[in-house]
Specification:
Chains A, B: It comes from Mangrovimonas spongiae. 2 copies of one chain form a homodimer. Chain A is an alpha/beta fold. Chain A has 2 domains: 150 residues, NAD(P)-binding Rossmann-like Domain (Rossmann fold); 94 residues, ProC-like, C-terminal domain (N-(1-d-carboxylethyl)-l-norvaline Dehydrogenase, domain 2), CATH 1.10.1040. Chain A contains 9 helices and 8 strands. In chain A, strands 3-2-1-4-5-6-7-8 form an 8-stranded mixed sheet, covered by helices on one side. In chain A, 46% of the residues are buried.
Amino acid sequence: MISICIIGAGNVATHLYKAFTQSNQLQVKQWYNRDLSKISTYKNEVAITNTLDDLVEADVYLMAISDDAIKQVSSNLPFENRLVVHTSGSAGIHDLDKKLRRGVFYPLQTFSKGVDMDFKQVPICIETIDKQDIDILKTITEAIGSKWYRINTEQRQTLHLSAVFVNNFTNQLYRIAHEISDAKSIDFDILKPLIMETAKKVQTVSPYMAQTGPAVRHDKKTIKRHLKQLENSKHKDIYELLTASIKNTHGR
Amino acid sequence: MISICIIGAGNVATHLYKAFTQSNQLQVKQWYNRDLSKISTYKNEVAITNTLDDLVEADVYLMAISDDAIKQVSSNLPFENRLVVHTSGSAGIHDLDKKLRRGVFYPLQTFSKGVDMDFKQVPICIETIDKQDIDILKTITEAIGSKWYRINTEQRQTLHLSAVFVNNFTNQLYRIAHEISDAKSIDFDILKPLIMETAKKVQTVSPYMAQTGPAVRHDKKTIKRHLKQLENSKHKDIYELLTASIKNTHGR
C-alpha cells in the first residue's frame, strides 16, 4: 500500500484524488489546500488540512498546484528527504526544493470539471532525480490503470507544447468551423462524426499518411474557391498558412 | 426495393457500393466505370459496364466521380427524366445536366481505403431540384443507417470548407506535433489519448466552452516559452496565428 498526500485542489488534484481512492493499492492519507472550503466536501472520507506544518508522513507528496507556486510551496514543506512530485507539464524538476527527493508525475490529458476521467486514457509522464524513486511512481500509475512513460524535463516541455497544437489549436479549428457553419444556419452536429473520425484515424495511421484534401492534392481551384468563400480575413489567414504548411510537409 | 446504378469507382463509390449491398431495401443493379479493371473484382456480384449507353433502368443513378467530370458525364447519359445524384461537397446541383431529375447525396466523412466505414457515423447531406425526389434519398440514407440532413448547395459548399478545417487542418496540427515530439525522441503514442479526448469533448460541449490552455488563460509567460522552444519558423507562425485567433474568440 502506497500512502499519498495531495497538495492542491484544482482539476488535476481532484481527478487524481478520485482515481487514487478507487485503487486498493493506494491510500490518500491527507489532502492539503490553502483554501479549505474547496476540499471540505471530502472531509468525511479523507483528512484535510490548510496548514503545511500539519502534513503527516507519507510515501509520496503529490503537488498539483500552479507552476508559479511550486518553488515556494516545496521550500515551505516541513520535512526533508521525502518524495515530492509535481504534476506540471512545463515546470522543471529542479523547481522543487533540493532538500526533497524530487519527481514529476505529469498526466498528459485534458480534464473536464465534473466529468470522471478513465485513467486508462491518461498517459503519465514520470521523472525522478533519484533512480530508486521511479518504481513507486510506476506502481502508482499502474494502480490507477494508466500507462507510464519515462520523460525528462526537456521532453515533457516539448509534450506540453505539442499538446497545445493537438488540443487548444485543434479545438480552435473546430471553433472556426462552428462559426463558418453557423453563419449559414448549418447544424454543427453534421461535422461531429468527421471530427471523431479524423482523431481516430491517427490512432493507427501517421498524420502524414492520413492527410487528404485540396492542399495535399494541390487542387488550386478548390483552394481558390474556399478562400473566396471565407468572409473573415483572419480565417483566410489561417486557411492560407495551414494550406502552405500541408504543401510544405508533402513536398509541393 | 430501390434500385441503384453506381457511376465511378473511387473511394466513395466503393464504400457506398458495400453499404448498399448490405441493405435488403436496396439493390445495386449495375456498376459503371470508364476503366473496367477497377471494378472487375465485383463482376460476380453485380453487373459491371464501361459503356454509358449500356446503363439499365434504375430508380437512382449515383455519380461518385470527380467534380470536373460531373457536367460531361451527366450530359452523356443516354436517358432523360431519371433521378441522378452526385456525391460532391463542392459541385453545384446545377452542374448535372438539366435533362435529368437532379439531386445531391454528399456523405460528409473521410473514407480510408480498405477500412470499412460504419455508415451510422456518416451524415449524408441531401438535396434535390424536385421536391418529390427527396424521399427516395431519405430512404436510401436510412437503409444504410446514416442520418440525413437537407442541405442546399451554398450550405454544402460551406460544409466542405468547414471539413477542411476540422479534418485536413486538424490533421496537419497532429503532423506538426508529431514532428516536434519526434525531434526530441518522444513516442507520438503519448499524444494519442489527448487527440481522442479533444475530439470527444466537442461532441457534447461547444468548442468555445471546451477551450483551455495558455492563449485563453492569457498566460504570456508560457506562450513566450513555447515560442522560444519552437525551432521551425513556420511552426512559430502557426502558433502565433492560432494563439491570436483564440484570444480574439475569447475577447482578449
